[in-house]
Amino acid sequence: YGYSLAGPHIEDFIFLVNDQDINKYSSEGQKRSLLLSYKQAQLLDYKDFCGYYPILLLDDIGTELDDTRRDKIYNKLLADSGQVFITTINLPNISFANTKIYNVKNGIFSRYLID
Fold it and tell me: Which residues of 90-112 are buried (b: 16+ CB within 10 A; e: fewer)?
């Protein structure tokens, strides 16, 4: 078929806060924060059930978030996860312990060296 017929990316979730659908009154940043918190909860459930973390792939998760919220979420995900791959346009302010950062510019892939 050329695409996946099953999986969490196919589902259309409805999140309620105080019995109200967040899609009706939340900002894009609030929606994104909630979805990332949900992903974090899924990671922890998977770890509890299987005994190890899954590989986490996140594509440009910080687009609708302010810098402070984005940095907090990145740091939380990196602290409470196993192997994480994140693509982003702007390098966040994160703790770099055990973190490798790569840069892709004009099709050239290189390691980003941290001072």
Answer: eebebeeeeeeeeeeeeeeeeee
Q: How do beta strands 20-21 and 16-17 pair?
A: antiparallel
Binning pLDDT at 50, 70 and 90, where does residue 91 land? confident
Non-local (6+) Cβ contacts of 57 within 8 A are 84, 85
Beta-strand ranges (E) seen in 14-83 are 16-17, 20-21, 56-59
Quote the DSSP letter at residue 80. Answer: T
- Specify the 3-state DSSP secondary structure of 108: strand
Give the pLDDT of residue 5.
Answer: 75
